[in-house]
Structures are given as C-alpha cells and as structure tokens.
Amino acid sequence: MSREARLERLLDFLHRSPTPWHAVAVMADRLEAAGFRRLDERQPWQLSPGERVFATRNDSSIVALQLPRQGLESLRMIGAHTDSPGLRLKPNAAQSSAGWLQLGVELYGGVLLAPWYDRDLGLAGRVHVRHADGRIEGVLLCVDRPVAIIPSLAIHLDREVNAGRAINAQTQMPPVFLQGGEKADLQRLLLEWLEAQHGITGAEILDFELALYDVQPPALVGVERELIASARLDNLLSCFIGLEALLESDGSQGVVLVANDHEEVGSASACGAQGPFLGDVLRRVNAQLGEPGEEGFIRLIQASRMISCDNAHALHPNFTDKHDAAHGPALNGGPVIKVNANQRYATNSATSALFRDLCREAGVPVQTFVTRADMGCGSTIGPITATELGVPTLDVGVPQWAMHSIRETAGSHDVEHLTRALIAFANRSQLV
Q1: Does the reported pTM lie above 0.85?
Q2: Which pLDDT belongs to residue 319?
C-alpha cells in the first residue's frame, strides 16, 4: 500500500466528513465495500467465526469487528472519536441585526475561537423531517459552499485587538448568513437544500443538528508535502488510521474498531465512550462466539487490549517553552505514547511496553508525551473506556499542532507510522 494512495484516501475522508454523522456514513460505506455486514441493534444477531460486521448508534458512533476465525479468546481494540470542537446551530438559530440574517451558535467542546473569523463557512449535519405520508426520516445535509462568514472587526475600531482580548461567544461569534433576510428564510433554505440533495418535497422539518464548518479543502502542505492541514484532524485522523488498520489486518485475530461521538464534551451519552455502546456489542458477540456468562465476558476483556488513538501535542517551534524539555514530540517523528500519572491518559508501563514492541516490530519510531508539571492535561476516551470495560488500555496519537482550531496541522509521514503499528497490533497472536 503506497503512502501517496493512503494520503489521498485520507484527504478524501476528511473532505467528506464535516460532521460525526457524515464521518460514520463514510466509514460505513468503506466497511460495506470491504465485505463487512451491517448489524441492527434492534434485531437478533447471528454471528460466525471469521465474519466481518459493524453496528452504528445515533448514526454518529460505530463499532466494527473482524471476528476471529478460531475461538474468541482475546480482542485487539482500537479506539477513536468522531466529533471535533466547533460551532453548532441553536434550535432557533435565525436572528437579525443591522440588516443581516445571522445564525445563533452554541460552542461544541473546547473551541479555539479566533481562527473561526474570516473563514468561508458551509453548513452540515443531520435533519429530521416528516414526510407528507407521516413518515419521519433523518437525512444528512451538507451545504459545501460558503454560505456564512464571521467577519473580524477592523483594527481601526479595536486598536487593542492584537494585545489579546476575550471573545464573547454569544455576541461576537454569530456568522452573517443572508443580507436582508428574515427568520423564515433559514427554514426555506433548508427545505430547498433538502430537495436539491435528496429530492425531498412537501416535507416538514421537525428538528436538526447542524454545524458550521470551513469549506477550505484539506491539503498537503510544505515544500516536501510533509504536513497535512485540515479541519477536524482531532480526531478524524485517528478514525481513518484505525479503519485502515482494520481493513488491512490479516483476519486471523479478533479486531475491534470503536469510534465514539461526544468525546469533546465528556463522553457521557448513549453513544459516547462513557455509555454502554461498546459493552453492549461485545457482550452480544461473546454470548455467541465466546465463553458464555459474565465470567466468560470478564475473562475475554482481561485477555484483550485497547489502544486509544487521539492526537498528541507536537512541539511548536514558536512555543517550545510549552513542553517539558524531555517530552516534546516532533511531527513525522512517529506515534506518541501519552502518559499522565493522574490517569488523564490510561497508559501504564505494561501497555506502553506492548506498544513499544509493536513499533519495533513494524519498524516505526515512537515518542512519548507528558505535559509540563505546571500545566493541566487533557484526556481521551482511553481512561473512560478502561473504566467502563476494565480492559487494559494505553493512549497514543499522531502529534499535531493547533489542536481544536478550525484548521489543524499534522505530519504526513505519521499517518503511515501509526497505521503500520496498528496493523501489527491487529495481527499479533499473543498480547501478553
């Protein structure tokens, strides 16, 4: 598999995934094209050794499994999340000011606000409609052209802006959307876009979950194309790499890819890592293919391992003092093992040793990140999944700059590095 082909697939995935619902739809399409069978959580399951299956929940989280050919004794789990910080529309989003129709927004997750100014913004998400026959349907919407912008205030009117100031999300972040527009125009435009994209006519919009996004496409940047610049690298990059590893695994072992929604807001939801989705799927699989009962399930989990993949903070050349001097991961320097003594990351010496050995086997470099002792530390689905399931877990990630910005940057070589390490994990016969 050539590095260039993988990067082209990555750019396409990022471009087609402006929201978690779109990301899961794209992943599901790839899985089905590769022979995976979609399972419905509402229906009975009939599973066979060696089969490839997947299930989704809320259309924004997905669990895909390569079932082992012989005996369900352990699983190699890869975790990621589908959501990214951004601006979501409020339910009654339409508002007017100074002759402009604007969109009221709510912050989703820890958004880096300043980079959202002066960007060409599209609109995407999920819309639920009631058809003329009374049927209710949820459909994806993606307006992939610039329909909104959040204009900066001229420096002449705010001379202190470069000295730094707080941004008021309620009053200073609503984008302009339509000159001279009225509140009813938002509903009218949504119906027009639904007709253009899905042929839906005569329907009533019941509700929506819509987000603004930067329509600038992802790109390879740098003289040697050594960088990837894109929205939502945190954490669609890990979703893509995990999916690549699953699809390229040799099928001999039990492999699980879980990509949860709502990580950026705490993971406490029915489809988040703190919810029961992954556990529900694994219990149903174990009931058919493993040792039955709760004891059998616990034995399966304790024989398994999870690698939680979420991007890491790369050493920034303009802000080198923000890293511990001995733990500054470099872009294109290989995947990063993320360590935190206070369990903000799930890594311990046993799971870290396993990953280091996988990287040695795959021939890829490996790095370590620990935050400065005088700074706070973020977290991932790793500790949450470990807490919910009890599975031995570690946290790793591709290093990146500008985390939580509207456009983030990572190293193009690290895509191949982490993919190869995860393929080695998926194919390994002995985990301990």
Answers
A1: yes
A2: 96
